Amino acid sequence: MLDGVVDLHTFAERPQGPLDELTRGQRQWTSLAEAKTSGNTLKSDQLEPNLDIARGQGLDALITISDKITPVPGQHPTTVDRRKLR
User: Fold this and answer.
1) Which DSSP helix (H) or strand (E) runs through 50?
2) Torsional sign, CA 73, 18, 26, 7
3) Considering the entire predicted model, what is its pTM?
4) E strand or H helix at 61, and its extent?
5) Residues 6+ apart with CB under 8 A from 17
6) Mean pLDDT per 10-residue interval, the chain, length 86 residues
7) Is 37:74 a contact under the CB 8 Å cutoff?
């Protein structure tokens, strides 16, 4: 959990998902976001290219939002090539 003031701004809408910026104190993160709900599932063939885009543009993260329940807390519901996560 974060303490203090956190600012989150979506500053570009892209076909790959919104480009977000989060600032807390002096630290700033940028990320792409991918959301799937209402029976639409996150798939590795959609996430892996977005991971490549995020890395290629020097972003800090790819944020995924889904209504799918994970089998284990803290585990992502979609399997991706682990080399893309470095």
Assistant:
1) helix 44-56
2) negative
3) 0.69
4) strand 61-66
5) 32, 33, 34, 35, 50
6) 55 60 79 80 85 88 81 80 82
7) no
